[in-house]
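Final report, section 2: Outcomes. Of the targets proposed, Fluoride-specific ion channel FluC is the one most frequently requested by collaborating groups, and we therefore present its record in full.
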Amino acid sequence: MTPLVFATVAVAGGVGAGARYLLDVAIRHRTGESFPWGILVVNLSGALVLGILSRLPADEAWRWIVGTGLLGGYTTFSAVAVATALFAEEGRTRTATVYAVASFAGSVVAALVGIGIGSLL
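The predicted structure is given below as tokens.
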């Protein structure tokens, strides 16, 4: 990886994190705080796009910049883990279970759909 690609990956990560924040805030504004819909949407859409990217004919630098940088900054597993743990701690075990399963299984399904779409492009 060249220094330019490395720097671009870092910048793309910041852009992805900013996009995650803006989308999460916008969704929370509409849906409220009782369930982390924003982070769920972020992670599902990120898995979909990464699945598409995995099948596109792109050079290695492009994959690093978009896949690792942009989408790595955009998606977040740690937020899912913390929200799930907090739901469980609050006694909201059903919500914790639904969120954990929806996040993980939904992301796998979204990635598979993305892989399928990417294979068609």
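The radius of gyration is 16 Å.
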